[in-house]
Amino acid sequence: MFVSASIAIETVQYISEIVFINEKLAVETWNTIRILLEAFGGGNEILGGFWVILFSLLIKIDGIISIVCRNVGFLVFFIGIATAFTNSNYVESLFGIAIITWFLLATLSKVSERE
User: Fold this and answer.
1) Which residues contact 59 (CB under 8 A, 6 or more apart)?
2) Helices in the chain by DSSP H: which ranges?
3) Hey, where are the domains in the chain?
4) Over the stretch 56-114, which tens digit does the pLDDT of each residue have?
5) What CA–CA distance (Å, rounded) separates 96 from 45?
6) What angle do CA 91, 74, 103 make, to 5 degrees?
7) Which residue from 3, 25, 57, 112 puts its CA 20 to 30 A from 35's CA?
């Protein structure tokens, strides 16, 4: 978080200096730095996506619920990565819905594994 904040502060200062000289460069710089900020802790979706895909790969495939859970895990991963490249609340909301679905499926998969 501290790295992310430091980069953001320095970038805002730089962009405020160049925005009136070269607006296109300022926008491109901000869009590029925003990806780094998300990767360094501004976007918990990225970390959550990696976490879910790792656990999805560890799920024992023994029924339809576990197969669906693994596939939803891949979807969560890709949506988590997509949040770094879009500036849409819809993608972040979709990530939230997908990860809740994944948790429910993972729980059902674990319960059905015990039976």
Assistant:
1) 66, 69, 70, 73, 106, 109
2) 2-18, 23-37, 44-58, 64-85, 89-114
3) 1-42, 44-115
4) 888 877 888 889 999 999 999 999 888 878 877 788 889 889 989 999 998 888 887 66
5) 9
6) 80
7) 57
pLDDT tens digits, residue range 20-33?
Answer: 999 999 899 888 88
How many angstroms from the chain centroid is the CA of residue 18? Answer: 30
Q: Are 76 and 48 in contact (CB under 8 A)?
A: yes
> What is the C-alpha to C-alpha distance for residues 25 and 101, in angstroms, rounded to an integer?
40
Calpha distance 22→18 (Å, rounded)? 6
Euclidean distance between CA atoms 79 and 10, whole angstroms: 29
Euclidean distance between the first and the last CA atom of the chain, given in angstroms as a whole number: 43
Burial 62-86 (b: 16+ CB within 10 A, else e): eeebbeebbebbebbbebbbbbbee
**Cα 79 from Cα 92, distance rounded (Å):** 8
Task: Reduce the DSSP state of residue 19 to 3 states and report it.
Answer: coil
